[in-house]
Amino acid sequence: MAVLVAGLLASGAAASAEIRILALGDSLTAGYGLAAADSFVARLGAALDLAEHDVKVIDAGVSGDTTTGGLARLEWALAGGVDAAIVALGSNDALRGIDPSVSRANLDRILSVLGQRNIPVLLAGMAAPRNLGTDYVAAFDAIYPELADQHGAILYPFFLDGVAMVPSLNQDDGIHPNARGVEVIVERMVPYVLRLLERATSGP
């Protein structure tokens, strides 16, 4: 991880002021089943520290939350001031078979609120369970690239990329990443987060 981050920053200067990144998500960002130090938020913060950025990653992950819940608590999550946001919601919508149009509308509203405040966003995609049928899968999976394009957000195509369906990287439930799985997620996502930081420090 240190080598990756150092290489990515070879041509850039470190930020001089603290950047507050909101991680609005569910159990995947909240670190369900993990020690606090092994959670996504903690590991991402540590990776950015290696990159010599003064960054505070704010944990706004609530286990079991849906896009509806995320939208309902968005204003509260923003109350302390935020410079950038990672939106990682929707996995529970898919697991519960919620109508993709509902998930889309909620995420659309979340991105709209963040856009109105000139808060740059990294939208982390989710994927529907394949046993829900081709129509549901197609409708749900399309939400993320389409909304990222519509709102000008940075798209990280799949939050669990490289981890989903890999037993050694998941807890016993086969859904939530273990500590090593979180390391893989963070390592793959860091280049996208660095792009987010560039947007946050370049102004509207």
Q: What would your notes on this structure say?
A:
It is built from ten helices and five strands, in the order H-E-H-H-E-H-H-E-H-H-E-H-H-E-H. It has 204 residues and is α/β, with parallel strands linked by helices. A five-stranded parallel sheet has the order 2-1-3-4-5, sandwiched between helices. Helix 3 packs across helix 10 and helix 7 runs parallel beside helix 9. The protein is globular. The relative contact order is 0.17.
Q: What's the mean pLDDT score?
A: 91
Uncertain runs are: 2-15
* Total beta-strand segments: 5
Strand order of the largest sheet: 2-1-3-4-5
- Note the overall shape: globular
Q: What would you say about this model in short?
A:
With 204 residues, the protein is of the alpha/beta class.
